[in-house]
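Z., the sequence and structure:
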Amino acid sequence: MWKKMKFTLKGEITFSKDATEAKEDIQSFIDDANKELLLRGLGNETLEAGAQITDWNITGDKLNLTIKSGHKIRAHDGLLRLKNPLSKIVGKKYHLGVRDMHIDTYEISIPTDEYSFNKDAALKFEQIENIQEEDNFVCFTIKDINESEIKKQTINRIIKQVATKEELTDENGEQLDLTYKMNSTPGEIVYRSDKFELHPVDDVTEEALKLGWVKQFPGKGQWFYGPKMTALERAIESILVEKVLDKLDFQECLFPKLIPFEVLDKMKYLEGLPEGMYYVSAPKRDPEAFDKFKQELIINHEIPIDLLKDGLKDPGYVNAAAQCEPFYEFLSHEVVDEKDLPIKCFDKSGWTYRWEGGGAKGLDRVHEFQRVEAVWCGTPEQVDKVRDATLLLSQDLASELELEWYTEVGDDPFYLEGRKVENRGIEFPDVPKYEMRLVVPNRDKGVAVVSANNHGTHFVEGFSIQEAHQHNIWTGCTGFGLTRWLFGFLAQKGFDKENWPKMVLDRLKDAKTPKVLTWPKQ
């Protein structure tokens, strides 16, 4: 059994006025929090993995706290969990408000048999002091952490910078499987395929352009996919649906692709990556504004952007950036019964849009791409099981197609930014995300084709999805990036059908490239 991180926090909660008269109710709240709130989300972990308030006192308008914890519910997460429920208890009866939270000192112990500690990196942080090594642990203190820094995950980012998780193996030196790994480090490879015969293409995009399979569209990160590329995409799509989603009894739906801000707000997407989406504005009901726009356009033969802006409302929508958004809205404020779970749906009806900024390049990094999105709701055990099943079946499929692949722990999903330690006791799995990548010959990094996610209660809380008996439910989603499957497939198998697997050829429809005298360019 590995040793885990340990945390000791000393800090305070500041009220709007002297809180002495509320001492008895605060005592009861702390007792209850130690029994439930600070242990919520432990799953199968022992109590030591949770958080506990071990000491406290009130001095004027301050509640001084010592919180000790294990690795699962870190002490600073626990501090944030206290804010809202404590406000409700002291607010109504004593007219006290919680004004601020602050950590004076935060002692962190990191096991050196599980993590590599970068002392040079630690010394660069002004807030870190008292670095000591003892009993197979590195201990250090982070001082003076304000509430904004706690909410922004500053502490966890500091830890990631100074401590790198070692690869975990069993007693025989074998790499541990997916269901055993907990709290893994992003980028850590957990599965890898066998080697297969490859027929690599140096530059898939250039070859596709030369053959007339695609043509670049004027919009950044957009492409016109010709008949032959589309036929291959449809063949791979049908294989994914048959070999993964049909096997798991997912039901097909048609999801909207224009997502209102009110849905995004429930999802916390705007806090996560607002710069990564396309925003949509509806026109005002003002014909005069557009008369001026049309008149200037006719005269100058240039689009008068300022006049166009005058005729538009403020943005109220985004083009779907994840594709799963409508599923949670479908269940919003609804009640489900555990006996009817899991609910499993998928959508393959259209495009997904993400603004990659300067990162768009070729056919593998685009702004507009095809996906199949599977999304489900169930008990925590069901959500984990379905997530792992979509991933494992995808891996089996790639091997059946004789494609080389590997699966790694994904970075924290962007929608969890600023929410992971929110003070409402939201539960998260140890590993929210796995990514499966197809190997791209002559590149260090493969192309991500499957993103398998377990959201915990993130969307259940945000959309007020309820279970009839108040039992715990989670959600999950797996995205299959069809555009990237195409790229990875062609990078490994090339454009010559003689080298393609029978499973693809059996589903491939005849397709003819349009004859155009001036295209494709030779």
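Confidence is low (pLDDT under 50) at residues 175-183, 418-425. The first helix runs from residue 23 to 35.

Let me know what you think.
H.
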